[in-house]
Amino acid sequence: MLHTVNKSPFESSSLKTCLSLARSGSDVLLIEDGVYGALAGSAHASLVAEALEAVRVYALEPDLKARGLSGDRLIPGIEVVGYDGFVDLACTNDKIQNWL
Amino acid sequence: MSNAKKFMYINRHAPCGTVYAVEGLEVVLIGAAFEQDVCMAFVGDGVFQLKQDQDTADTGMKNFSPAYRALGDYEVNRLYVERESLEERGLTEDDLMPLTWEDEDDDWAEKPSIHIVDRAQLSDLIEEQDILLNF
Amino acid sequence: MKFSVMVNEGPYTHQASDSAYQFIRAALSAGHEIFRVFFYHDGVNNGTRLTTPPQDDRHIVNRWSELASEHDLDLVVCVAAAQRRGIVDPDEAKRNSKDGDNIAPGFRISGLGQLIEAGIESDRLLVFGD
Question: Which CATH architecture has domain A2-99?
Answer without folding.
Answer: 3-Layer(aba) Sandwich (3.40)
